[in-house]
Amino acid sequence: MDNQEAVELLQKVIKIPSVAAKEAEVADVLDALAQPYVDAGELTVERLNYAPGRDNLIIKYGPDDAKTKLGIDGHMDVVDPGDPAKWTYDPFAATIKDGKIYGRGASDMKSGLIAAFVAFLNVVKKHELHDTQLVFFATVGEEVDNYGARQLAAGHYVDGLSGILVCEPSSTQIEPSCRGIIDYTVTVQGKAAHSSTPEQGANAITGLFAYSAAVAPKAAKLCAPDHPMLGHATHSITLINGGNQVNIIPEAAKLRANIRTTPLADNVAFTKAINAAKDEAAAAHPELHFELSVDSTIDSVASSADNHLVQTIQAVRNAQGLPSLPVKGGTGINDAAVMLQPGMDLAEYGPGNDSSHQTDEYVDIADFTQAIGLYEKIFSQYGLTY
Questions:
Q1: Which domains are assigned to the chain?
Q2: Counting CB atoms within 10 angstroms of each CB, which of 1, 277, 362, 377 has the fewest?
């Protein structure tokens, strides 16, 4: 597949509004392109259903008894585009302007997904592998809770891999590790009353304020240490809901928060801290009922900064006349957080930029097409020794 065909393929999948849904439509496109190689006996393709209209795609090239096995990961879902009127171009039109493709998912991460897929097929066509197996994963639900990656890990699809290349946009660096995550909800139940007689009620929103005040110093202490690869942990209250009318004391309120963890401030420590904050707020307000639920928790993961996959990426870049990249920890989370197993190499490395999740998200076409060529070499050379 040449670069123009690859650009057209990227536009085609950006036009599929796979916002926590419809990933099977993306899988259909890739599956159809792989079928001639399946018919020739060179590839195997499997669809793993997660929910209606949501299929993970697994494509294998190379023998199961290969000495080296490289997993190649990309997700097919995207985040909500928000108000389309705020976009310069329709978020699902995949408009090309001034060497860029605009659209939701252009950077995160349909450009990485398609660049890797095109490179994968090109390697198959050229028969460039030697005692290596490539396993291409296109997953569902990464943007919510890594649903597809969890399903693949539970189904043992990643067992035996030597390494995992996550094709997310890596901001001109290589990331062999990523922070963990906790999403949680605090719910407060009080008693409604007329706002002219607040003493007859119990203000649930006051309970949220009490929780926020209690958790702040505990979170600050955990967020203070800097991990050499992943930096400092973060804790952010991101959603608040409470009350239903201005002259009624609110009987219910809730907040949701997001934590990004590191080995120096891990999921166990943060879970203990937020529960302690809930108990402190509840003790200060016995008229209110507090509940805390941890909605999602994934530990931070890491491979060594000089693992073989990182070395391969740097060697391929150098051979193409490109400079070596800094190796840093990722502040976000990716599918490897639930797919990585002890001893596996990990590298997040892909085209894209910091427009991910933003209005007017885009990818530079030159960045996308360059990634195809680099991925081809990485896939074919990962089995070599450096």
A1: 3-178+301-381 (3.40.630.10), 180-298 (3.30.70.360)
A2: 1
Q: Print burial letters for 249-265: b (CB count within 10 Å at least 16), e (below 16).
A: bbbbbbbbbbbbbbbbb
> Can you tell me the distance from the alpha carbon of 280 to that of 189, in angstroms, rounded to the nearest whole number?
16
According to DSSP, the β-strands at 248-249 and 289-298 are unpaired
What confidence tens digit (pLDDT) does each residue in 221-259 have?
999 999 989 999 999 999 999 999 999 999 999 999 999
CA–CA gap between residue 229 and residue 233 (Å, rounded): 12
**pTM, two decimal places:** 0.89
Residue 190, SS3 per DSSP: coil
Q: Is the pLDDT of residue 385 over 80?
A: no
CA distance 319 to 377: 10
Residue 373, SS3?
helix
**DSSP 8-state class, residue 276:** H
Is the pLDDT at 386 greater than 70? The verdict is no
Alpha-carbon distances, residue 90 vs 6, 81, 85, 94, 103 (angstroms):
21, 10, 8, 8, 7
Confidence at residue 60, expressed as pLDDT on a 0 to 100 scale: 98
Please count the other Cβ atoms lying within 10 Å of the Cβ belonging to residue 101: 24
Residue keyed to tokens 């930029």:
353
What's the token pair of residue 31? 């599956």
Give pLDDT tens digits for 255-303: 999 999 999 999 999 999 999 999 999 999 999 999 999 999 999 999 9
Q: Record the tokens describing residue 24, joined without a space.
A: 């099977």
DSSP state of 262: B
Give 324's DSSP letter: P
Strand partners, 133: 69
